[in-house]
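The pair is listed for reference:
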Amino acid sequence: MRLILSLISLYILIFSQLLFAETSVNSKIEEADNLFSEKQYIEAFKIYNDILEKDRTFSSRMLLRMAFIQEGQGNYSSALYFLNLQYRLTADRQTLNKMSKIAEEHSLLGYQYSDKEFFVSMFNNMQGVFAAGLIILLTACLALMYIRKRQDHSITTLTFFVVIFSVIGLWAFNGGIHRELGIVKGSGAILMDEPSAGGKKLVDLSAGERFQIKGESDIWYKIELPNESEGYIRKGRVFDIQ
């Protein structure tokens, strides 16, 4: 009985914290949106970027506006980064076409799209629905456990489902459905054969090129290029798309 009540209290606490954080972020986004509408793009971008880096959250419109500002300033690698984030959030076909157009204009590699990436984008787009569904299922199971426990009935099956739903939720919302990508920030990036400045240079990478991040070692990412060759690049040279 105490375990059931503790679980219910935990879920209520987590939900209230998430709600408070979302309200604070929405206030900042509204301020930046007003600046954008007044064409104060630099000031708007600063607030948007602060939300992205500090609060680690974003909206679809916010990312599109950040991409618009960066493209207008000629920072196409930054524009591609924000478009990639937006595509992962919405799986929007227009965003995909825009990224392909920019990549084609600058002869960039790594923008061939797969079914897995589309699935990841769809999951990100439907996260709220999945989360709500899991919460409803967990709440129903916990309520039934409470009722059956008071009636001295077995709750073994319900306990099993609570554990399964919790594991699925933790897996899905903590990187289980995940394919980490990276984009070269600017010119001067070099792919090395080992995570060391003393390693052998394999190839120069162009700003805006995209690749898959396979792992990391100190200040280096281990990456795989579209041609399936692997190597290491400094983290400071990479926009990390998570």
Notes: Residues 2-37 form the longest helix (36 residues). The first strand starts at residue 181 and ends at 184.
